[in-house]
Amino acid sequence: MVPARIRNFSIIAHIDHGKSTLADRLLEATGTISARQMQEQVMDSMELERERGITIKAKAVRMRHAQDGDEHVLNLIDTPGHVDFSYEVSRALAACEGALLVVDATQGVEAQTLANATLAQQIGLKIVPVINKIDLPAADVDGVTEQIFETLKILEDPVLVSAKQGLGTDEVLKAILRGIPAPQGDPARPLSALIFDSTFSTYRGVILLVRVVDGVIRPGMKVQFFSSKHEVTVEEVGFLTPRQTRAQSLSAGEVGYAICGIKDIHQVRVGDTVMESARPLSAPLPGYKEAKPVVFAGIFPINAADYENLAAALEKLHLEDSSFDYQPENSHALGFGFRLGFLGLLHMDIVKERLEREFNLSLIATSPNVEYRVQTYDGLWSTLDNPAKFPPHGEIKALEEPFVLVTIVLPVEYQDGVLTLLKERRGEYVSIEYLTTQRMIIKYYLPLAEMVINFYDRLKSVSKGYASLDYAACENRLSDMVKVEILIHGEPVDALSQIVHKSKAYSVGRALCEKLKELIDRQNFEVAIQAKVEGKIIARETLAARRKDVLAKCYGGDITRKRKLLLKQKEGKKKAKLLGSVEIPQDAFLAVLKLDEDKK
User: Fold this and answer.
1) Is 383 domain-assigned?
2) Where residue 4 falls among pLDDT bands split at 50, 70, 90?
């Protein structure tokens, strides 16, 4: 296909603004999928995506569309909308020349609309604005058009559609051909192709999704990956329609898949550049940004015998989702497992659920935390993502925690509750702008640690669900953080340790002790549940001993007989207390996640 007849584009939007539904209508209108094969969210092939109604993985599909007697190829890359998966969005945009920016006619510009549009503009993509859901009674097309002009600085007239009803689909196709530029690649140049995603097949090995920038890739060709210089032979290339359709070659400007017989998942990295071994490149393709995990948690198998299965599952899943990282970890309470780094809490939830579903594992996750930089008195700085490895208080000279720039779009009437929440979470004011007389944008600097537990739920609660959130990492700042250590029966439980700000240490310790008292079963002896900070016990709950009625069969007689029985029971409990160990239920390790410290 001649590059002038190709259009490579993405669909970007805030979560639930209708990008997957619009993708369905485009597939229908171009005849890519027949009416018999059609189903809702056809691009969301993962069971988890369908259940949650969100896109998790970027998808690519090739469509053919004829206009004015000329046949064009449209390569659509569908992207996620949730803030945690902005990494997937950046990968997809790197493979495109333009993007459809979908905005809900009833909700207007939201936080992720702003973030994704800015990301697309920064890498020079042509943006075609699309206003969706124009058929709804609450639709405000004029107001949303004004927001697109004023806030996003996009001056083109938006295409008006109702993706659910199929209205305006032809206009969208015309706008793609008219507004999005054709790729500029040259098939005669040396091969350079961007790996923007990958999947793993048990039978075929690694399947690479590539955008060919220059040159041609065909079966039998020897190619290399720029970062590792590892050489492989191309076995098969083709297009996604959305099923794999074999082709003779992929030329400059085209998007498709390549199978190279790669069995070792560590030989390839998403975002790498593929080049021809005979004509190597001097520099990789630009514009690709590596993901940096910001939230960390321990993942342990409930059955210790599943450790090897968990290791194998993580290897396979890491190929499809290279945005999380992992390394082995050992906990006194939970045994052998892995420490994982995620892009956010939803990402953590998705990865854990995929491991459990796709690999039939039963797992437990520890409390999530962020990465801190700690300086000890010998002057050395180190990075810590695990509270269990936190140095003792007397050895810490300085500590830095990560801050993020939070952007919240919300109706004006909920600003008081949201601003109060941001102050409670140690937020620092940046700016307030008004989109309209009814809607506003609040920007605050916020410690990432304050967002990790319960922030999103609290934000939705105080705004009645109307606030939308986006955040971006900005810097590390000096902070007064302490380690809250939980002791059960005098023994520290490393998996329940937390790093919190000193001002919140008491409330967190108290709430955690109270929660654990509810969850731990009573023993034959009294159990102390304590929270310790900087060597001092700051909170304690006592779990009373399970009491057996030893006097049940004592029907009378001398009182000394009863006293003997009670004394014997007391001595037995004393001995059990010295020898006994407390079994902590799995629910206790989820207690930190479920704590609502604001109510405490």
Assistant:
1) yes
2) confident
